Amino acid sequence: MISSGKSHNGAILIVDDNPTNLEVLSDTLTAAGFQVGVALDGETALEQVQYYDAELIVLDVMMPGIDGFETCKRLKANPLTADIPVIFATALSDPTNKVTGLSLGAVDYITKPFQHEEVLARVQLHLKLRNLDKNLKEQNFLLQQEVKQRQIAEDSLKNLNEELEQRVHSRTFELSQALQKLEQTQVQLIHNEKMSSLGRLVAGVAHEINNPVNFISGNLNHAKEYNEELLTLLELCQKNFISLPSEIQHYLQQIDPEYLQEDLPKLLSSMKTGAERISKIVISLRNFSRLDEAQKKIVNIHKGIESTLLILQEQLKGKTDEFNIRVIREYGELPPIECYASQLNQVFMNLLANAIDAMDEQNSLSLPQNKVDHPTIWIRTEILHQDWVTIKIADNGPGIPIDVQSKIFDPFFTTKAVGKGTGLGLSISHQIIVEKHQGQLRCYSEIGKGTEFIINLPYKVRSDQKSQELAKSNV
Questions:
Q1: SS3 (DSSP) at 317
Q2: Of the candidates 33, 78, 107, 191, which lies 20 to 30 Å from 318 by C-alpha distance?
């Protein structure tokens, strides 16, 4: 049964088996503007509360069937009614029931007989508390929703940042690769231009020197014959003429014919040796630059090394005999190597020139006690394993600092003074060995003990992927 007043401050369910109590409470609450529902026992109350949206329940303790305590217990066990505040109605002299009710989840109690002001005060207080609790839960729900939205926004922002970082990283990597490729292209262009200039220089030198050298060499043979004929004539004159005119005798005394007969053949022989020496130098220059070998060709590595040493022979001579650089050759029996001969010779030139420069600088700048007693370069060659050979070029110079060793193959990196080095020699050498020949170029150095460069080359340059992976794995 539901009765209604003029206003609706809140819906209240009154549960009591005593009609008088129901009437008193109903009249009091209705007069105060509350919507009131009533039930005579616990079972009815549990059924009625399913469709009657009560905001507060006034529950009698002593009722037939299930009592108030059991009714309260079932209300609190049901999620749909657990939040409805329950006020027990009990006798003033029964504190045990009050404690039991509060322990079961009741929020308060009113005593019988009812006092109108007390009933209204307690009901209004707990409705206000319920409204505050509802508002708090709503605010908490909204706050949780806001937290979820912020978490979603933060996750989205985090994902966006990660995606942006990935894009930046990817773009940076692409730019780095492009820059590296550009630097390699620049190095290759400079190298090509350098080799082209060297080729033109050698061609000009060969053209300009070969003709006069060949002319001198050819005429020296005739000069030797003419000398022998003139000396023979002189001997015949001295032998067949007992007395020569005084003028001739006087001239013979001045020129010392015996000395001429002994020294002139030596002089002509020395001139012939010099001309042959010039011819060998020209041949070495041509062999070094390999102007006629733009493609791969099977060559003798040792000849390339010797040609390079011949070109560097003046640099191997120190300012004094004490600091002449010795070259110790420890050549093994190597098979012919298919390679770009001129480029490989360029590598030998770079490595040997660097070793010479390092020892010259040490000898010119170091204190006397720190100078190398016997500056030496060792060149060792041997078969490495399977289809590979190794060329080792070592020196007993000052060595390379550890922090520099990781940079020596970088383009344009140099430790030499401005104007004395471009920083391209080792970078070009690395590119020639690793990329052009699928080989390996490594450096081992220790301060105060020297430096060793190791070149590993396949017998025959292979373009298959397996060979390239093998080469790169050991670089």
A1: coil
A2: 191
What's the pLDDT at 199? 59
Query: What is d(CA 100, CA 105) in angstroms, rounded to the nearest whole number?
Result: 9
Amino acid type, 100? T
Sign of CA dihedral 246, 247, 251, 257: negative
Which of 60, 84, 114 delimits the end of a domain?
114
Asked if 208 and 270 count as a contact pair (C-beta separation under 8 A), the reply is: no
User: What digits encode the pLDDT tens for the residues 416-431?
Assistant: 655 455 566 787 788 8
Indicate whether 63 belongs to any domain.
yes
pTM for the complete prediction? Answer: 0.44
Residues spanned by the domain of 49: 2-114
CA geometry: angle at 299 spanning 298 and 303, to 5°?
Answer: 175
The Cα–Cα gap between 266 and 249 comes to: 25
Residue at which a domain ends, from 83, 114, 145: 114
- pLDDT at site 53: 84
Alpha helices, DSSP H, located in 241-340: 246-255, 257-289, 301-311, 313-316
> How is residue 369 annotated by DSSP?
G
CB neighbour list of residue 106: distance below 8 Å, 6 or more residues apart:
59, 72, 86, 87, 88
Task: Give per-residue pLDDT as tens, 176-186.
Answer: 888 877 877 77
CATH of the domain at 108: 3.40.50.2300
Does position 70 have pLDDT exceeding 80, yes or no? yes
Nearest of 411, 445, 404 to residue 425 by alpha carbon: 411
Q: Which two tokens stand for residue 468?
A: 């390239």
